[in-house]
UniProtKB/TrEMBL annotation:
Subcellular location: Membrane
Major localization listed first in the record, in broad terms: membrane
Catalytic activity: K(+)(in) = K(+)(out)
InterPro entries: TMEM175-like
Keyword Metal-binding: no
Protein name: Membrane protein
Family assignment from sequence similarity: Belongs to the TMEM175 family.
Organism of provenance: Rhizobium aquaticum
Protein topology in the membrane: Multi-pass membrane protein
TM region positions: 9-27, 39-57, 69-87, 107-129, 150-180
Keywords: Ion channel, Ion transport, Membrane, Potassium, Potassium channel, Potassium transport, Transmembrane, Transmembrane helix, Transport
Keyword presence, ATP-binding: no
Amino acid sequence: MTKGRLEAFSDGVIAIIITIMVLELKVPHGETIQDLLPLWPVFFSYVLSFVYIGIYWSNHHHMIHAVKHVTGGALWANLHLLFWLSLVPVTTEWMGETHFSTTPVLIYGVVMLMAAIAYYILAHCLIAIHGRGSDFAKALGGDAKGIFSAVAYVVAVPAALVTPIISVAIYVVIAAVWFIPDRRFERAVSLS
């Protein structure tokens, strides 16, 4: 099976996710800069989630570009990832509207942890298709950033019960780690 449909469908879903997030931003009630201040939690949540979705889109693009073909299992693994990403707009708005209250911050972390797990499953499904000795598997390597992220989410989720700002800080750190472009798949594609 070719990978083109998987890539096109994923790009469309991710574009819709970003569109939904931006449509949830509200216009301030007033005309001054001070009228924007009450909206900072919603805007911060939006920026954080926009960065996350952008990171997933970029890494997904590079990963799929590095594979030769996909199977039905890979399609389902990809849908699993898209399912968790599709929940990001809801948890983003909930977190921002409640000014980073405990439960929304905790649920946001659960969604991000599940998206990270789904990405891991997709990557390993693609390794199974192409083989452990493939260029794709070599490019993925030990996936230190992926493992770091999952561990950090596991810490961040219960931390929300102590103080949600710790969890939000961890989410920002994870995004910062991934904000630096991951060139593993680009190098694998250029070598093959």
